[in-house]
Fold YkgJ family cysteine cluster protein.
Amino acid sequence: MAGASRRVVVTDGQRIEVHPGCEAVVEFDPDLTFECVDSCTWCCQHGVLLSDPDLVGLAKRANVNEATVDFRGQQAVKREPKDRENDVAPDGAACFFLRDDGLCALHAEHDWKPVRCSVFPLSVELEDDDLHISIREEAHDHCEGLDVSERRVIDHLDDFLPERLWSIANPETAIEP
Ligand code: SF4
Ligand code: SF4
């Protein structure tokens, strides 16, 4: 239910209170570390689905009409051709907000990102109204930031899982084919 904290139910995973009243069931190795690698922009080469709270936040920081497209009935940050040889998808495009210096304009200039960008490389599944957190399969293949630092993901879950995640009607990161 939008605006409400998820119900607390004991499961076989480790339960963590990420924000007051907002818990998640952790299903990854607690020793996993992550630090985004400056030279990697893999997860910014794709479009980003936007939740309703994202759209409200984005509208305060950018021109939503210019930056988004409809994707199967849901708004998404659009991709656009980039004048770069590296750090773009094979079609030469990347996220609208990926700057020439490889940084995200929203993050660099507004200290803000869509929820799905904050969550990566984690995955969110909704089971019995609980958020279950694991690692995105494609992150193991493409994300250069896994296990390259001392920064344990489990100690910084609030960075990956913003409080507004708990108010989204469908917080799951998997996209139906
Ligand atoms: S909005 Fe920013 S963090 Fe998200 S994909 Fe685009 S450039 Fe990357
Ligand atoms: S794929 Fe991983 S290392 Fe690369 S930009 Fe995304 S979060 Fe950072």
